[in-house]
Amino acid sequence: MTDIHHEHVSHESEEKAHSGLNTKVIWKVFWILLGVTIFEVSISFTSLSKDILLWTFVVLTIVKAYYIVGYFMHLKFEATPLQWSLLLPFVLIVYLIFIAIYEGTALGLTPY
Amino acid sequence: MSTNTAVATAKSNVWGGGSSPFKTRWGKLYMWIFLVSDAFTFSSLLIAYGSLRHRFTHIWPKPNEVFTHFPFLHGHIPLAYVGLMTFILIMSSVTMVLAVDAGHSLNKKAVLRWLGLTIIGGFMFLGSQAWEWYHFIKGSEKGAYVLADGRFARTDDLEPGVLKFHDGTMVEGTEAQALISTATKNIVGANLEENEYGNTPLFANFFFFITGFHGFHVFSGVLINIIVFILVARGFLDRKKDYELVEKVGLYWHFVDLVWVFVFTFFYLV
Asked: pTM for this structure?
């Protein structure tokens, strides 16, 4: 009985070390996400220029996405081929953002 | 030493099967592939929103003048409520990752506790969204007017008798009364054809579609979490000695949280 218990514990600690996540890291990520969100809401009431606000929000959103995907979804600790296979397709999304926003802005400037 | 042997074996077996380049199990891999495709769907919706917002930027409503309600409080409190919804969803993401963590050590009781809290968080988020939809659809007391000259003017419950235009100018008193009496249309609340927030149906359409599509994801996530909760409670995963199922629904739940982070920024903040 003690033997089994011992084996179980060592397996557990090995798994934890391998996965790179523990409750301490999880709560740290939670505080980062909460802090960034509170910061975003509070600067939205300041009189900073629209462009500065927009780019701050975009950058902070990517920061939050990094922590959610990297730590909560565990992608930071997965094999490199898997990381590349899942993230590379989003180059197409960046391209779509560029053409769609460019098109929308151009149409907005066209008198009708 | 043992790793070296493993690498050598994997290399010689590359075309003969037996190697695992992604070093993960197929269930999690399939969930990842589904989530990438779902991310493309949400990206397309948000990009369509951005594109048309840039097209109609001269009449597009300002989100912090639309979502100003907070339960039990009077007055304009923009963004506080969606901030609270974001907090609820991030919190339920944390409880989910703690459930996955407990699953790694086959701790059934802890998995049930954290998964149960995740389900409660999901219901709280859905309730918050229903409350927000209700206020969005119901609108203000007087709504907005389409004036005789075609201009679009909003009223404000806190400042009766004042008409507000999109460019920030205001009209009040008898002048406002005269404009209202000759107005061609009064719009109160929001539906798919018109809304009091701006002179374009697109804003409400995108609101209903994007937050609705996301809310449906949350709803199905809660259902799947409940199914997994029952399976765990009945000892299904204990018999298999394998809590991978919790990891898979965990991935889906975090994805729903991730999408909300983007909706929060591009629908409410910007």
From this structure: 0.88
